[in-house]
Structures are given as structure tokens and as C-alpha cells.
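REQUEST ID: PR-0412
SUBMITTED BY: lab tech R.K.
PRIORITY: routine
TASK: structure prediction, single protein chain
INPUT:
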Amino acid sequence: MRLLITEPMRIVADLPVASVRAEDESGCFAILPGHTGLLTRLVDSIVSWKELSGKLGFCAVRGGILTVTEGREVAIATREGHLGDDLDTLEQVIVAEFKESDEAERQSRIAAAKVRMRAIRQMVMALRGDGMPSEPRP
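STATUS: complete
OUTPUT:
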């Protein structure tokens, strides 16, 4: 079975595997060769797999879409993927990085909302003509 993990601009992993473990909103699940077709949305999590040699592999993913095609290919499209050999280290580093990134995105959305509100207020004042708040209409 082939595992393909991609970001918008690069291929993170493309290798033959014996099994894959991933996580969606319903919980963790495993995929073995011959698995029925599947399409699901992944949560921020660690995807793991067992290579044909028995070696374990790991990739932290920032959400994404997982598809299983004819039980022969598992494809994951994610915004961000980080490969690692040590699960504990990968989880600690990447989870912290994801949280920081989420906070930065949140702050950016708040700043953008404030700019939009300020622009709307200025447009309303300009349409009133006097720059003074109007009395509520009945």
C-alpha cells in the first residue's frame, strides 16, 4: 500500500507501507491493505505508519483530508506536515508550534475585524454627513 502525504507546495512523504494510523473527529483508526474507500477530515494530530520493513514512521499534520483509494493508496493533503522518528519529541515540539500558530492566526483575525469595524463606522459617519451619531429611528 502506498502512503502519500502532501502540503500545498511539497510532498512530505511518498512510500510503501504495511499500515497507517490516523485521527479524525470520531477518534483514531487504522488502515490496512484492501481497506474500503474512505474520505475523512483529519484533526491536528500525529499520523503513524509501519513500513514494509517494520520500521515505524510519524508525521504531525495540521488537519487535512485523508482518502483511501481501492485499498492501495492512502493520500493525506494537509496544510502543514512534519516528519519525525521519535514520537514523543515530535508531539511536544509540533503541538507547541501548532498552538503558537493558532494563537497568531487568532490575533490576526481579531486585528482584521477591528480594522473592518473602524472602516464601517467611518462610512456610516460619512453617509450621515455631520460626523455625529444619529438618534435611533422608530
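NOTES: The chain has a mean pLDDT of 87.
REVIEWED BY: pending
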